[in-house]
Amino acid sequence: MRGKNNWDWGLRFVFFIFMVLLLQSNSGTVFNLITGNRIQQTKINKLVKLTAREWEKVKKFDLAVQKENGKLDVSVSTRNVLDEGIQSHRVSKTKATSFKFSASCNTHREPAVVIVVLTAPTARGKRLRQLARDTWFNLIPRSTPEESVIIRFFLALDNEGKVPEDLHEESAMFNDMAFVNTTESYRNLFRKVNLMFKWVSDFCTGHPFVFKTDDDSFLRVDLLLSRIQDLPKERLYYGSFLRRMPARKKNHTTKLLTNNPLPGNAQNLPEWPWYASGAGYMLSFDVARAIAYPPLPIWIQTAEDRGIGMQLFGFNITYMSDRGSIRPWGHCSADALLLHYQRDAGLLRRRYERARAGNNICGEGWKEDDLCYLVEQHETVRMKCARSQKISTIVFAGLGKHWVGTGYKGPCEEGPSALQNNPSCFYNETPSIKSIVEAKCLGKNSCELVNDLRKTSDSYLPIKDPCKGQFKRMLVAAKCR
């Protein structure tokens, strides 16, 4: 009888592997770790690409196996494993000592999503927090019930374990800041994120999704609310995943990987497990609670996003990759859910106004006959129209600290609405940059102008330096007719 059972299980296992290989050819976006426990040191789980419907079939198979033989690794349900560990580590909310002067979570209604935002007690952090409050915080649709979306900034206490004095007024005014009992440093981000999820687990009722992001991100809260309607409520890890990242040092000469592990790779893994970029990712409540109260020992990492991936490594959870909507490097797309590195106030406000109006958040772009150039210091603007056309109008010409950033190439990518001077540094005297460009280029098919204020140069601009010692770009926009 035992031999027959073993034969039956062997056939089931072969059938299961066959179905997995068959499904791998599909173009789904859901990724599942088909194992219940962490595997041995140098072995890495293989991720299987499944559509949402196919994942439901695998999950039913998983539960059927669990019912007949709970000892098989593939049968261990994450929910059981994680919840058992969480309950053994659970503490009373009244005894929680990791938070001080914390803004409360929800009071009347169970939230649909809690957005936790990493920030810092610096001047730049304060500026970015206010920009977020003035822009994407207000993208919550008016029809959304109160407390359906909870947004909180998270900061660390000072070296004396107290709330920094300069933040008392801001916290009391907006009631959207929570302070965790740890130190503020990059190397300590993983601990800070762990406490963020603990705050959600201890103080937020219901089972909301938890979306983590940074203070220099632009989040489409309106799109997020519609997106979560179709997502699984349990065992979810959602974001833009980094895959096949080497976990061993490279040889500087040959550029090949060695057998020496990188810091944090105590298991000597050849590659890091997949992890979602820390710019923005979302967890279902049960997974967030597993981060807060880990059922197994934590593998501490310097990079907080990699630390989350390591902590969830080997559990039976759903990895849902959305690299098209979550943009960790700031590259814009019309349907983007999140853009990272959005640090310019003007750019952030323009994106917000377009989102409110239902327009493309990336900008209106340029018409076919329009020219736009943004050149670095000491480089040359080379304008050229089509063969039968001439430069008819100089729409804008300016010299100063025109902002570009990670994933953002400036107004020449965005459109005419971005043609603005940076008030901190731009030339605003006579003759104007526009008049210089008009005198040199109007009526011509092509034209060149050098962005150079050095008098030693043969083609320098005969103007006064608006901000000596600072790097300046030249921005020119024109029309051809």
**Major β-sheet annotation:** 10 strands, mixed
DSSP summary, beta strand count: 20
Round the Cα radius of gyration to an integer and report it.
Answer: 27 Å
Q: Kindly, what is the distance between the CA atoms of the first and last residues, rounded to a whole number of angstroms?
A: 88 Å
What is the overall number of helices?
A: 12
Give the SSE layout.
Layout: H1 2-23, E1 30-33, E2 47-50, H2 52-68, H3 78-89, E3 99-100, E4 113-118, H4 123-134, E5 149-156, H5 168-174, E6 177-180, H6 189-203, E7 209-214, E8 218-219, H7 221-227, E9 236-242, E10 248-250, E11 257-261, E12 275-283, H8 285-292, H9 304-312, E13 318-321, E14 326-327, E15 338-339, H10 345-357, E16 370-375, E17 380-384, E18 391-400, H11 411-414, H12 433-441, E19 446-450, E20 473-480
Parallel strand pairs: 4-5, 4-7, 5-6, 9-13, 14-15
Antiparallel strand pairs: 1-2, 1-13, 3-6, 7-12, 8-15, 9-12, 10-11, 16-20, 17-19, 18-20
Helix pairs in contact: 3-8, 6-8, 6-9
